[in-house]
Amino acid sequence: MNLAPSPASVGLPSAAWQLPFIPERLTPLRLTPAWPQLRPEERLRYNQLQGLYFHEQIIYFEQAIIVPLLRAARPLVTDANLRDALVTFEAEENTHSAEFHALLRELRPEWYADSWRHFVRVGPVGEAILAGLLRHPRQFPFLLWLVQLLEERTMFASRLYLAEADAFPASIVASQRRHLADEADHVQWDIALIHQLWPATPAWLRRLNVRLLDWMVGEFIAVPRRAALRVIDALAADLPNLSIPAATLKAQLRTLAASPDFRAAVFGRDAVPRTWKQASSAADFAPFVTRWLAHEHTL
User: Fold this and answer.
1) Which domain holds residue 68?
2) Does residue 69 sit within a domain?
3) Residues 57-74, buried b or exposed e (16+ Cβ, 10 A)?
4) What is the model's pTM?
5) pLDDT tops 60 at residue 294
6) Residue 192: which CATH number?
């Protein structure tokens, strides 16, 4: 049975667009009351669009956060081996980003021919604030925790892809397999950076940094934001006769900010175990753990 409308009707290559692009656990709309009411072809197209957005997110995190942070942190590192490792880290992130952009271009060339950004858009003020923070990792070492969390979560996502490798287009699985091969080293280097910079930070500044991390997680990760709503707009553009109005879908997505199930999907102990183990054992992180681990019953 062909679950999707003809991809040719919206200018899409047919073979890949018969398959989902992302593991269902990573799709927030499945947690809304509207999800069971959508037709199979609508659920499939949403999954595919969410998969495109997910790969945009990876590129954004790599190019807008991780690479600038590595460049700023490298001069602060006293261990020569770690400094050399950060050069490798940056090169591998650039390789991943280029590969994911090529993947996006292959899947939706009219969106991604010249840029990897379609759903991810950050205003100039937000970009400037983030860039300013990233230039000063000694003062803002919370960014190292953020990077570790992001790296660990992308490893978890890659494992979900590989666990169902036959379910997705081969090009997506191949990219995720190569990505995972590098990420284990990256997380170890993240931990080494934290061990070097975090203990040297004054207690009052660590407390401020935990608050900043709390804000950053809420802004970029823990709540379906504007880009997630643009996925719904794209769904409505691809399939104009949605069985549930796009406005209803977006309203239900917004309610997930308070959903324990959504938080568990994003921050489950299986998704980011090292980050939560470290945070739960650090007194500085008590407010952060209380807020973002409310869905976890055992620490």
Assistant:
1) 7-292
2) yes
3) bbbbbbbbbbbbbbebbb
4) 0.91
5) no
6) 1.10.620.20
